[in-house]
Amino acid sequence: MKQKNTPSQKPSLFFVNKGKDALFSKKNRALLSDPMDDNNPITVQVLGICSALAITVQLKPAIVMSISVIVVMAASNVIISLLRNLIPNRIRIIVQLVVVAAMVVLVDQVLKAYAYDVYKELSIFIGLIITNCIVMGRLEAFALANRPWASFLDGVGNAAGYGFILIVVAFFRELLGSGKLFGYQVVPDALYEMGYENNGLMLLSPMALITVGIFIWIQRSGNRKLIEKN
Question: Residue 223's closest CA among 8, 34, 65?
Fold first, then answer.
């Protein structure tokens, strides 16, 4: 007698067992949404601060860096998840570094070919994605223990949360520091004629840290769950 397929025997779609989780189940949506607020890599986990200090003087490099990290993290998470049962525990960090380095080289060469001006500004920092604690942390904590689809969402979510903070910081630093956005003047000349002066202090590295600190304060004021209890 032919047996009927049980829910656990249903074929998988994009590495997700249909009998267990839909592609965008509540659990999977949380992988995208949590890093934007409750578990943001920069403002909650306090990781990747060095990037916020280095590349947020202008908005354009911050956006390009954010997109680059999203591509690297999403691809690396999927690859490590696919290989998770084949990687010996003793060399897992080496394998992770090799995978991330390969993705970073691809992104680096694409930027060099199609956005050379931005590439010259970010060349050093694109390379440092290899050792970014956010990327390595998600590979170690999530991709090694989860399916590729969930790992993909986790990579995109955490990279987007990281990129969101970079873009917010760069927006205020460029606007208040030079009166421009994307290199174009947005503060009207009439305002300068009335005595307005750009706040050059915003272009200095310490102001990136102060801006991030203000954002953390605002975020925790509105989300009481993030306030640490004694």
Answer: 34
What does the DSSP 8-state code read for residue 87?
Answer: S
Listed residue (132, 142, 153) closest to 81, CA to CA = 142
Q: pTM of this prediction?
A: 0.81
In angstroms, the CA 220 to CA 211 distance is: 14
The pLDDT of residue 228 is above 80? no
Backbone angles phi, psi at 78, to 5 degrees: -65, -45
The residue whose two tokens read 């995208």 is: 32
> Is the pLDDT at 79 greater than 90, yes or no?
yes
Domain boundaries, the chain: 41-221
What is the arithmetic mean of pLDDT over 24-42? Answer: 81
Mapped onto helix, strand or coil, the DSSP state of residue 48 is coil
Tokens 């990279």 belong to which residue? 159
